[in-house]
Known about the structure:
Blueprint: H1 3-13, H2 18-22, E1 24-28, E2 35-39, E3 44-48, H3 51-57, E4 62-68, E5 72-76, E6 80-86, E7 92-98, E8 104-109, E9 115-119, E10 133-135, E11 151-152
Parallel strand pairs: 3-10, 10-11
Antiparallel strand pairs: 1-2, 2-5, 3-4, 4-9, 6-7, 7-8, 8-9
Bound molecules: zinc ion (2 copies).
Amino acid sequence: xxxxxxxxxxxxxxxxxxxxxxxxxxxxxxxxxxxxxxxxxxxxxxxxxxxxxxxxxxxxxxxxxxxxxxxxxxxxxxxxxxxxxxxxxxxxxxxxxxxxxxxxxxxxxxxxxxxxxxxxxxxxxxxxxxxxxxxxxxxxxxxxxxxxxxxxxxxxxxxx
Length: 160
Ligand SMILES: [Zn+2]
Ligand SMILES: [Zn+2]
């Protein structure tokens, strides 16, 4: 299923099978002041090579997993802060992080309304994460290469 179709399928029809609804995942920041919970399966798992992700994560790229906002809830949220940047084509990206320890947690991009993009390193268990796509490959650096088979996009993800 293409990225765009998948997003439309999940967000547009708000469809989840029963087994996926039951599944819960927890995550949070380094100091533990900020915690969240996710329900069900990710809509997409993606590697992002954009310059802003490099800056924010302090690493070679971000690994992010998309969840609908219905699937997400904060469990501990007193320290949450966000920083907003301009995204592609006039859009904006709100990047949420822990104000106490600085761990990046998730992004809310105006280009993908209704979704939160979880930084998968913030999950308590991220062993299930297997990106199938990379975006902003034009900004990829040497240490951004992986052995994964990825559908590669030079810029942002495809849209309908
Ligand atoms: Zn923290
Ligand atoms: Zn990025």
